[in-house]
Amino acid sequence: MDIVSVGTANIDFILKVPSFVEPDSEMNIERLHISPGGSALNFAVHSARNGLETGIIVMLGLDYFGDMIYNRLEDEGVDVGCVSRVHESTGMTFVSVDGSGRRSIYSFIGANKKLTIGKKEIDYISRADLVHLGGTYLEIAFPVAEHADVLSFAPGTLLAAYGMSTLRPILRNTDVLFINEYELRLLTGKSAQDAVNLLIDEGISLIVITKGGEGAELYTRKDVIKYKVREVKALDTTGAGDAFAAGFIASWLKNEGLNECLKMGHECALKALKRLGAI
Protein backbone atom coordinates (compact mmCIF):
# COMPACT_ATOMS: atom_id res chain seq x y z
CA MET A 1 0.00 0.00 0.00
CA ASP A 2 1.25 3.50 -0.83
CA ILE A 3 -0.22 5.46 2.09
CA VAL A 4 -2.04 4.89 5.37
CA SER A 5 -3.69 7.93 6.98
CA VAL A 6 -4.29 7.91 10.75
CA GLY A 7 -6.37 10.29 12.86
CA THR A 8 -9.94 11.53 12.99
CA ALA A 9 -13.04 11.10 10.86
CA ASN A 10 -16.12 13.23 11.42
CA ILE A 11 -19.28 14.42 9.83
CA ASP A 12 -18.86 18.11 9.03
CA PHE A 13 -21.84 20.44 9.20
CA ILE A 14 -20.75 23.47 7.17
CA LEU A 15 -22.88 26.57 7.76
CA LYS A 16 -22.42 29.40 5.25
CA VAL A 17 -23.37 32.62 7.06
CA PRO A 18 -23.14 36.35 6.24
CA SER A 19 -21.13 36.96 9.43
CA PHE A 20 -20.46 35.29 12.77
CA VAL A 21 -23.27 35.50 15.27
CA GLU A 22 -22.98 37.71 18.35
CA PRO A 23 -23.85 36.33 21.80
CA ASP A 24 -27.60 36.17 22.51
CA SER A 25 -28.47 36.86 18.87
CA GLU A 26 -29.53 34.86 15.81
CA MET A 27 -28.16 34.57 12.28
CA ASN A 28 -29.73 33.16 9.13
CA ILE A 29 -27.83 30.26 7.50
CA GLU A 30 -27.46 30.90 3.78
CA ARG A 31 -26.32 27.37 2.88
CA LEU A 32 -26.00 24.10 4.80
CA HIS A 33 -23.57 21.43 3.61
CA ILE A 34 -23.17 18.03 5.32
CA SER A 35 -20.13 15.98 4.35
CA PRO A 36 -17.55 13.55 5.77
CA GLY A 37 -14.45 15.27 7.11
CA GLY A 38 -11.69 15.01 9.72
CA SER A 39 -7.95 15.22 9.13
CA ALA A 40 -7.31 11.54 8.42
CA LEU A 41 -10.32 11.19 6.14
CA ASN A 42 -9.58 14.37 4.19
CA PHE A 43 -5.98 13.32 3.54
CA ALA A 44 -6.98 9.76 2.58
CA VAL A 45 -9.66 10.83 0.12
CA HIS A 46 -7.38 13.34 -1.61
CA SER A 47 -4.56 10.78 -1.75
CA ALA A 48 -6.86 8.24 -3.40
CA ARG A 49 -8.02 10.89 -5.89
CA ASN A 50 -4.35 11.50 -6.69
CA GLY A 51 -4.04 7.87 -7.76
CA LEU A 52 -2.35 6.40 -4.69
CA GLU A 53 -3.34 3.12 -3.05
CA THR A 54 -4.60 4.51 0.24
CA GLY A 55 -5.80 3.05 3.52
CA ILE A 56 -7.09 4.69 6.68
CA ILE A 57 -7.14 4.00 10.42
CA VAL A 58 -10.07 5.70 12.16
CA MET A 59 -12.91 4.91 14.57
CA LEU A 60 -16.53 5.44 13.52
CA GLY A 61 -19.76 5.09 15.44
CA LEU A 62 -22.28 2.36 14.66
CA ASP A 63 -24.80 4.96 13.54
CA TYR A 64 -26.19 6.68 10.45
CA PHE A 65 -23.26 9.10 10.12
CA GLY A 66 -20.75 6.28 10.60
CA ASP A 67 -22.41 4.42 7.73
CA MET A 68 -22.29 7.58 5.61
CA ILE A 69 -18.53 7.98 6.17
CA TYR A 70 -17.78 4.28 5.65
CA ASN A 71 -19.70 4.18 2.37
CA ARG A 72 -18.09 7.40 1.14
CA LEU A 73 -14.60 6.01 1.83
CA GLU A 74 -15.43 2.90 -0.20
CA ASP A 75 -16.84 5.03 -3.02
CA GLU A 76 -13.62 7.10 -3.07
CA GLY A 77 -11.49 3.96 -3.37
CA VAL A 78 -9.97 4.17 0.12
CA ASP A 79 -9.25 0.78 1.73
CA VAL A 80 -11.46 0.37 4.81
CA GLY A 81 -9.83 -2.79 6.18
CA CYS A 82 -8.66 -0.93 9.30
CA VAL A 83 -11.75 1.21 9.90
CA SER A 84 -13.19 0.28 13.30
CA ARG A 85 -16.73 0.79 14.59
CA VAL A 86 -17.98 1.23 18.14
CA HIS A 87 -21.30 1.85 19.94
CA GLU A 88 -20.72 5.59 20.23
CA SER A 89 -21.87 8.58 18.21
CA THR A 90 -19.64 9.34 15.24
CA GLY A 91 -17.52 12.47 15.66
CA MET A 92 -19.03 15.72 14.40
CA THR A 93 -17.74 19.17 13.56
CA PHE A 94 -19.89 22.27 13.21
CA VAL A 95 -18.19 24.90 11.05
CA SER A 96 -19.55 28.40 10.44
CA VAL A 97 -18.01 30.05 7.37
CA ASP A 98 -18.47 33.80 6.91
CA GLY A 99 -18.44 35.85 3.73
CA SER A 100 -14.64 36.10 3.64
CA GLY A 101 -14.07 32.37 4.18
CA ARG A 102 -13.11 32.65 7.85
CA ARG A 103 -14.25 29.79 10.08
CA SER A 104 -15.62 29.28 13.57
CA ILE A 105 -15.43 25.62 14.61
CA TYR A 106 -17.11 23.52 17.30
CA SER A 107 -16.07 19.87 17.56
CA PHE A 108 -17.67 16.81 19.14
CA ILE A 109 -15.00 14.10 19.32
CA GLY A 110 -17.44 11.20 19.71
CA ALA A 111 -16.19 7.77 18.57
CA ASN A 112 -12.75 9.20 17.70
CA LYS A 113 -11.78 8.98 21.37
CA LYS A 114 -12.15 5.17 21.27
CA LEU A 115 -9.46 4.67 18.60
CA THR A 116 -6.50 2.57 19.76
CA ILE A 117 -3.41 1.25 18.00
CA GLY A 118 -3.14 -2.51 18.46
CA LYS A 119 -1.54 -5.38 16.56
CA LYS A 120 -3.97 -5.13 13.64
CA GLU A 121 -3.26 -1.43 13.18
CA ILE A 122 0.52 -1.88 13.58
CA ASP A 123 0.55 -4.61 10.92
CA TYR A 124 -1.45 -2.32 8.62
CA ILE A 125 0.96 0.57 9.21
CA SER A 126 4.00 -1.63 8.55
CA ARG A 127 2.73 -2.47 5.04
CA ALA A 128 2.52 1.20 3.97
CA ASP A 129 5.25 3.03 2.07
CA LEU A 130 4.28 6.17 4.01
CA VAL A 131 2.08 6.90 7.01
CA HIS A 132 0.40 10.27 7.42
CA LEU A 133 -0.47 11.35 10.95
CA GLY A 134 -2.88 14.23 11.41
CA GLY A 135 -4.07 15.97 14.54
CA THR A 136 -5.13 13.30 17.05
CA TYR A 137 -4.38 12.12 20.59
CA LEU A 138 -0.89 11.52 21.96
CA GLU A 139 -1.92 7.93 22.73
CA ILE A 140 -2.41 7.43 18.98
CA ALA A 141 0.49 9.56 17.75
CA PHE A 142 3.27 7.84 19.72
CA PRO A 143 2.74 4.24 18.50
CA VAL A 144 2.03 5.37 14.95
CA ALA A 145 5.30 7.32 14.80
CA GLU A 146 7.18 4.40 16.34
CA HIS A 147 6.03 1.87 13.73
CA ALA A 148 5.92 4.00 10.56
CA ASP A 149 8.81 3.42 8.14
CA VAL A 150 8.26 6.87 6.59
CA LEU A 151 6.14 9.43 8.42
CA SER A 152 4.52 12.66 7.35
CA PHE A 153 3.13 14.61 10.30
CA ALA A 154 0.63 17.47 10.45
CA PRO A 155 0.20 18.12 14.19
CA GLY A 156 -2.38 20.89 13.99
CA THR A 157 -2.94 23.04 17.07
CA LEU A 158 -4.09 20.06 19.16
CA LEU A 159 -0.71 18.31 19.15
CA ALA A 160 1.52 21.35 18.57
CA ALA A 161 0.29 22.78 21.88
CA TYR A 162 2.11 19.99 23.76
CA GLY A 163 5.45 21.52 22.76
CA MET A 164 8.81 20.13 21.74
CA SER A 165 9.64 18.19 24.89
CA THR A 166 6.49 16.07 24.70
CA LEU A 167 6.46 15.60 20.93
CA ARG A 168 10.20 14.94 20.53
CA PRO A 169 9.81 11.14 20.07
CA ILE A 170 7.34 11.77 17.22
CA LEU A 171 9.34 14.56 15.63
CA ARG A 172 12.53 12.49 15.59
CA ASN A 173 10.69 9.88 13.52
CA THR A 174 9.14 12.47 11.18
CA ASP A 175 10.35 12.69 7.58
CA VAL A 176 7.99 15.43 6.34
CA LEU A 177 6.42 18.00 8.67
CA PHE A 178 3.42 20.11 7.59
CA ILE A 179 2.79 23.05 9.89
CA ASN A 180 1.50 26.62 9.72
CA GLU A 181 3.13 29.67 11.29
CA TYR A 182 0.89 29.74 14.37
CA GLU A 183 1.44 26.03 15.05
CA LEU A 184 5.19 26.48 14.58
CA ARG A 185 5.28 29.13 17.35
CA LEU A 186 3.03 26.99 19.52
CA LEU A 187 5.29 23.97 19.09
CA THR A 188 8.68 25.63 19.56
CA GLY A 189 8.10 29.00 21.22
CA LYS A 190 10.58 30.47 18.73
CA SER A 191 10.63 32.70 15.65
CA ALA A 192 10.15 30.96 12.31
CA GLN A 193 13.83 30.66 11.32
CA ASP A 194 14.97 29.60 14.79
CA ALA A 195 12.12 27.07 14.90
CA VAL A 196 13.10 25.62 11.53
CA ASN A 197 16.74 25.29 12.59
CA LEU A 198 15.68 23.56 15.81
CA LEU A 199 13.44 21.08 13.97
CA ILE A 200 16.07 20.28 11.37
CA ASP A 201 18.55 19.64 14.17
CA GLU A 202 15.99 17.22 15.64
CA GLY A 203 16.33 15.22 12.42
CA ILE A 204 13.33 16.28 10.34
CA SER A 205 14.60 16.26 6.78
CA LEU A 206 11.77 18.28 5.17
CA ILE A 207 9.63 21.02 6.72
CA VAL A 208 6.74 22.67 4.87
CA ILE A 209 5.29 25.81 6.44
CA THR A 210 1.90 26.62 4.95
CA LYS A 211 1.00 30.31 4.82
CA GLY A 212 -2.55 30.37 3.51
CA GLY A 213 -3.03 32.81 0.67
CA GLU A 214 0.69 33.64 0.67
CA GLY A 215 1.70 30.13 -0.41
CA ALA A 216 4.21 27.94 1.44
CA GLU A 217 7.86 27.74 2.43
CA LEU A 218 9.93 24.57 2.31
CA TYR A 219 13.09 23.94 4.31
CA THR A 220 15.69 21.20 4.25
CA ARG A 221 19.22 21.31 5.63
CA LYS A 222 20.42 22.51 2.20
CA ASP A 223 17.43 24.13 0.48
CA VAL A 224 14.94 26.92 1.08
CA ILE A 225 12.05 27.30 -1.36
CA LYS A 226 9.50 30.10 -0.99
CA TYR A 227 6.49 29.19 -3.12
CA LYS A 228 4.32 32.22 -3.82
CA VAL A 229 0.76 31.91 -5.12
CA ARG A 230 -1.89 34.23 -6.42
CA GLU A 231 -4.36 34.91 -3.64
CA VAL A 232 -7.88 33.70 -4.37
CA LYS A 233 -11.21 34.33 -2.68
CA ALA A 234 -11.96 31.22 -0.62
CA LEU A 235 -15.50 29.92 -0.35
CA ASP A 236 -14.43 27.69 2.55
CA THR A 237 -10.95 26.84 3.89
CA THR A 238 -12.06 23.62 5.60
CA GLY A 239 -9.66 20.79 4.74
CA ALA A 240 -7.45 22.91 2.48
CA GLY A 241 -4.35 22.06 4.53
CA ASP A 242 -5.12 18.34 4.31
CA ALA A 243 -5.62 18.63 0.55
CA PHE A 244 -2.30 20.49 0.22
CA ALA A 245 -0.45 17.80 2.21
CA ALA A 246 -2.01 15.00 0.14
CA GLY A 247 -1.05 16.67 -3.13
CA PHE A 248 2.49 17.34 -1.94
CA ILE A 249 2.99 13.76 -0.73
CA ALA A 250 1.56 12.29 -3.95
CA SER A 251 4.30 14.07 -5.91
CA TRP A 252 6.98 13.40 -3.29
CA LEU A 253 6.36 9.65 -3.39
CA LYS A 254 6.83 9.80 -7.16
CA ASN A 255 10.28 11.38 -6.57
CA GLU A 256 9.26 14.61 -8.30
CA GLY A 257 11.15 17.84 -7.59
CA LEU A 258 10.31 19.87 -4.51
CA ASN A 259 8.93 22.77 -6.56
CA GLU A 260 6.64 20.32 -8.35
CA CYS A 261 5.53 18.90 -4.98
CA LEU A 262 4.61 22.39 -3.80
CA LYS A 263 2.78 23.09 -7.04
CA MET A 264 0.75 19.90 -6.74
CA GLY A 265 -0.08 20.68 -3.12
CA HIS A 266 -1.27 24.14 -4.08
CA GLU A 267 -3.42 22.83 -6.93
CA CYS A 268 -5.16 20.36 -4.61
CA ALA A 269 -5.71 23.03 -1.95
CA LEU A 270 -7.11 25.42 -4.55
CA LYS A 271 -9.83 22.92 -5.48
CA ALA A 272 -10.76 22.58 -1.81
CA LEU A 273 -11.05 26.35 -1.38
CA LYS A 274 -13.66 26.60 -4.14
CA ARG A 275 -16.28 24.41 -2.47
CA LEU A 276 -18.07 24.01 0.83
CA GLY A 277 -16.66 21.11 2.82
CA ALA A 278 -13.30 19.39 2.83
CA ILE A 279 -13.99 16.79 0.14
Written description of the protein model:
This protein has helices at residues 39-49, 64-75, 119-126, 138-147, 156-160, 163-171, 181-188, 192-201, 240-253, 258-273; strands at residues 3-6, 10-16, 31-37, 54-61, 83-86, 91-97, 103-108, 130-133, 151-153, 176-180, 206-210, 216-219, 224-227. The strands form 2 sheets. It has a 9-stranded mixed beta sheet, sandwiched between helices. Strands 3-2-6-7 form a 4-stranded mixed beta sheet. The protein is 37% helix and 24% strand. The protein is built from 10 helices and 13 strands. The mean pLDDT is 92. α1 crosses α9, α4 (138-147) runs parallel beside α6 and α9 (240-253) packs antiparallel against α10.
Strand order of the largest sheet: 5-4-1-8-9-10-11-12-13
Q: How would a textbook summarize the main sheet?
A: 9 strands, mixed
> What radius of gyration results from the CA coordinates?
18 Å
Give the overall form. Answer: globular
What amount of the residues lies in strands? 15-25%
Number of helices: 10
* Estimated helix fraction: 25-40%
Q: Supply the helix-strand structural class.
A: alpha/beta
Mean of all residue-level pLDDT scores: 92
